[in-house]
Amino acid sequence: MMQRLFEIDEWKLRSRSVEKEAKRLQESLTSLGNGYMGIRGNFEERYSGDTHQGTYIAGVWYPDKTRVGWWKNGYPDYFGKVINALNFIGIDVEIDGEILDLFKDKATDFVLELDMKTGILRRSFKVTKNGKAFFVETERFLSIVKQELCLIRYHVTALDADAIVTLTPYIDGNVTNEDANYDDMFWLEVAQEASENKATIVTKTIENNFEIPRFKIAASMESRAESASETAAEASKLYVENKYRFTVTKGKTAKLEKRVAVVTSRDYAEQELAPSSQRILDDLEGLDYEMLRLEHVTAWRERWKKADVLISGDDAAQQGIRFNIFQLFATYYGEDARLNIGPKGFTGEKYGGATYWDTEAFALPLYLSLADKNVSRNLLQYRHDQLDGAKINARKIGMKGALYPMVTFTGVECHNEWEITFEEIHRNGAIAYAIYNYTNYTGDSSYLENEGMDVLTEISRFWADRVHMSERLDKYMIHGVTGPNEYENNVSNNWYTNYIATWTLRYTIESLAKITPGKKAELQVSDAEIDLWQDIIDNMYFPYDEKWQIFVQHDTFLDKELRSTDTLTEADKPINQNWSWDKILRSCFIKQADVLQGIYIFGDEFDFETKQRNYEFYEPLTVHESSLSPAVHTVLAAEIGREDKAVEMYNRTARLDLDNYNNDTDDGLHITSMAGSWIAIVQGFAGMRTYQERLSFAPFLPKTWTKYAFKINYRDRLIEVSVNAKTVRLELLDGAPLELDLFGEAVQLVDKLEKHDYHK
Q1: What is the model's pLDDT at position 180?
Q2: What's the pLDDT tens digit per position in 241-294?
Q3: What pLDDT, on a 0 to 100 scale, did the predictor assign at position 1?
Q4: Is residue 161 within 8 Å of residue 141, measured between CB atoms?
Q5: Which parts of 173-264 are beta strand (E)?
Q6: CA 648 and chain centroid, separation
Q7: Which terminus in the chain has less CB density within 10 A, N or C?
Q8: Residue 501: what pLDDT?
Q9: What are the protein's UniProt keywords (predicted)?
Q10: Nearest-CA neighbor of 118 among 347, 367, 294?
Q11: What is the pLDDT of residues 330-383, one digit of tens each?
Q12: Euclidean distance between CA atoms 625 and 468, whole angstroms
């Protein structure tokens, strides 16, 4: 059921209510990030109602000891999770000695606004204390130019009477994770100090038993207060503050600027943490707030020049795609090859904040088109750097080769649900496919020929060991798996898993044939091993139904009671929140694209009729309760001519969080799946494909839109695509001429190319 908190605006999220009953949802949607760190949209001042205070630093995590009811051999020893870090945005506000608390105090003329064009969060409101009226304005941003830096500007204006206003900026290390397995507090104090206008605190994670390095964080604060009559500083355990007292006369304003620099042991030795955070602030001494704000805004403007998607005729659709691109870039922009993209980014703790297969399957295509290719290459390098960990995962379940984890910070699996950890092994194929996708799209084969072959070979060795031969059918099979549809566990011969395993073996053999013999010898790949892989390719079992002429999701899927999702009542939905797990497992309902995931990824290997039959069979059974689901269905619906369905699915993926479709955004945004809204437009409505190293388009215009336009990087070229009711225009903005396909016809793109009345 849709839940919309913010007004529709092309570039902004704007709310005019504190939303006490949906505060966590409001906080998730107004999260900020800069690739280095992120904060939920918490208020600076006190809020005593239900809230989820959250600050997260990229690459900082804790191995929380696994907690399960019944231990099984092979379980990960720990569940790695991003940990809630220092609360560095806090500013206590006292008016005539009374604390301001927006849960208890009534705010009028309230406006909360996230500006996606500039990456700035603003808030203003009126409040009455002791019969006196005040106007509060606050603005903050996390700099994308100086990534260790957070800036906050806080103003309190006395509207009708004089008052004593006290502003107390602080840093608080007394924070916990709501998802801690044993309710541990993960931080210990190392040091703290507070002096006039400045304060610093250093913390480190508690000890663990898994030989994982302990992380340390230092945060330094510098405050600038105009016309404060009194100042003070205080430090206590895990807490530092500066205090400013203002005598504010009617019509005048108490003004505070708070600067915070955050550094971690990922980049500095422990003894250098505090000096380094302090030095960052010292180096900004000659730059005022407006200067720092301007360079941040300018940097966002440069990002949007390439990445923006323009939609005319549907402001909700426009807001959705911009919000999703903004949050993706706020989470990851490729500056640090040690990092990846967590499903919740910096917006919450669910899923542990770790790396999933979402990156390769959904996020990579967007970054290939909207950022420098080195950004995508860093995502591939991240997996190569963790190859040893993937080998450990395979050994733990008795297999050869490498099994990439479902959830990880190091390459070692740290997810503790057996149906995911042991069975959802299709994720291995996504890692292999990402190597193909990068190579095919960029034309750069250097990664494939080196690091990529290391990864492909070890993944292929896993698949070759994981299959078994059915003597009854004389076919290779894969039993005991969970496919992309997580509403079915421990099934045999999930079609998608069997297909992507076979494809990986085929791609590895083809790639080995192209590289130098020295690399093959280095990998110790024998002719006998290749012969085995080829035999598996030739003799893999794929469940198929002659009556329906469809690929069967797994061996017994058609034995279920088959009924479409329109038979579900509103009280049933979402079924993952209203049904028992037993009932879900026995049902025919599908969480997300499964068979259709394979048809989408390998679209050049299936004809139109095959796509149509499988889509028409499986989509009516799909509840789309995974954030990853709508994008795939948009692309396939568009391809088979189901344009209305494609638009419906686009709206779901574009506004999944903004409208809280799945009733689960209060604990954080669905960051990786946000790439799905871009995929839906570019691969769905515009029909972009890159099969066999050749670019093609086949656009259509949704009926409710009047125009859309976007840009892509492609093989050292920048291309703009514009579509309206009568014309498709391709424009080469930068780079050499390119031959591509438009509606199945070869065309030469030299500068501008237009096709009129294309829909006829």
Answers
A1: 87
A2: 999 999 999 999 999 999 999 999 999 999 999 999 999 999 999 999 999 999
A3: 61
A4: no
A5: 187-195, 198-205, 216-226, 230-236, 239-248, 253-264
A6: 22
A7: C
A8: 98
A9: Glycosyltransferase, Transferase
A10: 294
A11: 999 998 989 999 888 899 987 766 778 889 999 999 999 999 999 999 999 999
A12: 33
| Annotated binding-site residue? 304 | no
Largest CA distance in the chain: 90
In this structure, the chain runs to a length of 760
| 314 labeled binding residue | no
What is the distance between the alpha carbons of residues 501 and 648, in angstroms, rounded to a whole number?
A: 32
Name 410's Cβ contacts closer than 8 Å, sequence gap at least 6: 80, 212, 386, 389
Q: What percent of the chain has pLDDT over 90?
A: 89
614-633 pLDDT, tens per residue? 999 999 999 999 989 999 99
Q: Is the pLDDT of residue 12 over 70?
A: yes
Question: Taking Cα atoms as reference points, which of 690, 636, 662 lies closest to residue 443?
Answer: 690
Confidence of residue 50 (pLDDT cuts 50, 70, 90): very high
Angle separating helix axes 315-331 and 289-307, nearest 10 degrees: 110
Distances (CA, A) of 298 to 306, 310, 748: 13, 20, 35
Domain ranges, ordered by start, for the chain: 31-302
Residue type, 89: I
Active-site entry in 486, 488, 619, 625:
486
Distance (Å, whole) CA 516 – CA 510: 13
Question: Catalytic residue at 648?
Answer: no
Flag whether pLDDT at 74 surpasses 80.
no
- Is 358 annotated as belonging to a binding site? yes
The model's confidence at residue 8, banded by pLDDT at 50, 70 and 90, is very high
Average pLDDT over the chain, rounded to whole?
A: 95
Q: Would you call 335 helix, strand, or coil by DSSP?
A: coil
Is the sign of the CA dihedral 250, 251, 257, 258 positive or negative?
Answer: positive
Distance from C-alpha of 184 to C-alpha of 180, rounded to nearest angstrom: 6
Coil vs helix vs strand at 251: coil
AA letter at 277 = S
On the 0-12 / 13-18 / 19+ scale of CB atoms within 10 A, 528 is exposed
Q: Residue 230 burial by CB count (10 A; 0-12/13-18/19+): exposed, middle or buried?
A: exposed
Q: State the SS3 of 563-615.
A: CCHHHCCCCCCCHHHHCCHHHHHHCCCECCCCHHHHHHHCHHHCCHHHHHHHH
How far is residue 320's CA from residue 630's CA, in Å, rounded to a whole number? 14
For 718, other C-beta atoms within 10 Å of its C-beta total 14
pLDDT for 179 equals: 84
Supply 250's token pair: 């009617």
Q: According to the annotation, is 357 in a ligand binding site?
A: yes
Cα–Cα distances in angstroms (integers) from residue 514 to residues 445, 453, 529, 749, in the given order: 10, 11, 17, 30
AA letter at 502: T
Which one, of 645, 640, 644, 613, lies nearest residue 629 by Cα?
A: 645
CATH number at 31-302: 2.70.98.40
Q: Which helix (H) or strand (E) holds 384?
A: helix 373-385
The upper half-sphere exposure of residue 667, i.e. CA atoms within 13 Å in the direction of its Cβ, equals: 12
Q: d(Cα 175, Cα 32) in Å, to the nearest integer?
A: 19
Helix (H, G, I), strand (E, B) or coil at 668: coil
Q: Identify any residues that bridge with 741 across adjacent strands, giving them in sequence order.
A: 696, 746
pLDDT in tens, 114-166: 999 999 999 999 999 999 999 999 999 999 999 999 999 999 999 999 999 99
Q: What global pTM score does this model have?
A: 0.96
